[in-house]
Amino acid sequence: MEDWKQLTRAGNRSYERGDFACARRAYLEALATAERWLVCGEPADEAVAAFVISHQNLAELYAGLDDCERAIDHLRAAHERLVHLLEDDDRPELQLAALRHCNRARLELMTFARNHGLSMTLAEDTRSRPVPRLVAPLH
After folding, report:
1. Residue in 99, 93, 88 with CA at minimum distance from that of residue 127
2. CA angle 113-66-68, nearest 5°?
3. pLDDT score, position 120
4. How far, in Å, CA of 85 to CA of 92, rounded?
5. Which SS3 state, helix, strand or coil, does residue 27 take?
6. DSSP state, 65?
7. Whether the predicted pLDDT of 69 surpasses 50
8. Longest dimension (CA), the chain
9. Contact partners, residue 22, CB within 8 Å, separation at least 6
10. Which of 108, 101, 11 lies closest to 47, judged by CA?
11. Which of 7, 77, 79, 131 could form a cystine bridge with 105, CB 3.0-4.6 A?
């Protein structure tokens, strides 16, 4: 986890200095680290959080560069991966972590689209689906 934090901090410092190329490299390395954690699934909540935050950092970077399409692509990728984990992964701890972060990721996606005047269909993409329920509702 410490390597991801260091990469993220380095990206944040570069972003604050206006060195966007360096920030992008650090954020992409942080995302690659988070993706490796998702594959092994340990620790589940930290892996999912790091993955989502990495995509959000990249989205913020691209939004700051007026590249809204790339920004929304990162927000969409985070949300879609969480939905995929919920639907197709057989590791309950990773599914629960994805569930905890899924609504927030979707809210970020929809808020970004609304704030940047993008169509909701662009934000939602045809691959996005509602978050599935892991347990049956009580009646």
Report:
1. 88
2. 30
3. 57
4. 10
5. helix
6. T
7. yes
8. 55
9. 10, 11, 14
10. 101
11. 79
